[in-house]
Every structure is written in structure tokens, then in C-alpha cells.
Write a structure and sequence with these properties.
It is built from 6 helices and 2 strands, in the order ββαααααα. It is mainly alpha-helical. It has one domain. A two-stranded antiparallel sheet has the order 1-2. Helix 1 packs parallel to helix 5. It comes from Araneus ventricosus (Orbweaver spider). This is RNA-directed DNA polymerase from mobile element jockey.
Length: about 140
């Protein structure tokens, strides 16, 4: 067995005099993502709510073929799909952003009402509000 021996060479770098010599730009964001929550200095959570609505819309769109009118899936299973797939995406971090503005709460309530109408109306149930109370769905605080 032959061992290769190579001489070690060290490259001596010139010391950096100032930060301007580094030649890179630092971009300061107004919003930071931490554990899936978008945080801003004023804790308004607008960015996080809008992102959560986009993600929940994508999740709901992927379930569209299962909740259409001609699908024979029972209503309780459609509701279970909503509760187990769409709602967790929408409500992620709600312990942190739960005290957000009324505008954000209204956005969430409108989204939930539209999704439930889409899920429930396919089975001929017309009164979504009474359906929400009988099926024990979460209600956002009163608007």
C-alpha cells in the first residue's frame, strides 16, 4: 500500500479593513417567517392570514373532486375532510394570531363560509349557519 504525501499549502488572506470591503447587500425584510408564522414588528398578522388563506385555498381545491355534487361521498365524510385537511392549514398558529384585527377575522370567516357552502351545498343543504351550529364547527368571534 502506497500513501500519497502532498505538501500543505496555506493561502494567507488579506485582513478586511471595513464592512464595505465585503461587497454584499443586506436586505432587511419587514416580515420574518418563524415556525411557519409570518411576523412583522407591529404584530398585525396580515401577511400570515393572507398566506394561510392561500394555502387553505390550495388544499380545498385539491379536494374539489371529492366534494362535488355527483360524488356519492356522505356529507359527514365531506365535513371530516374539511375539518382534517383544510381547517388545520387555515388555523395554524391561531394561539398566536388569535387577537388579530376584525378585518382578518372577517377574512377567515368569509373563507370558511364559502368553503362550507361548497362542501355542503353539493348535498342540498341550504342553511349553512344552522349546519355550522349542528355540526359543531368553530365559529370565529362575533363580527
Amino acid at each position: 500500500m502506497v500513501a500519497l504525501v502532498t505538501p500543505l499549502t496555506f493561502v494567507h488572506a488579506q485582513p478586511i479593513e471595513t464592512y464595505a470591503d465585503l461587497h454584499f447587500d443586506v436586505n432587511f425584510n419587514n416580515s420574518n417567517k418563524y415556525l411557519g408564522l409570518y411576523l412583522v414588528p407591529k404584530l398585525s398578522f396580515n401577511n400570515h392570514i393572507n398566506t394561510a388563506l392561500q394555502k387553505a385555498t390550495i388544499a380545498s381545491t385539491q379536494l374539489a373532486s371529492l366534494v362535488v355534487r355527483w360524488n356519492t361521498l356522505p356529507i359527514r365524510h365531506k365535513l371530516l375532510l374539511y375539518k382534517d385537511i383544510v381547517r388545520p392549514v387555515l388555523m395554524y398558529g391561531s394561539q398566536v394570531w388569535g387577537s388579530t384585527s376584525q378585518m382578518n377575522i372577517k377574512k377567515l370567516q368569509v373563507f370558511q363560509n364559502k368553503q362550507l357552502m361548497h362542501f355542503v351545498m353539493s348535498d342540498g343543504i341550504s342553511d349553512v349557519k344552522s349546519f355550522m351550529t349542528t355540526s359543531k364547527l368553530i365559529q370565529f368571534r362575533s363580527l
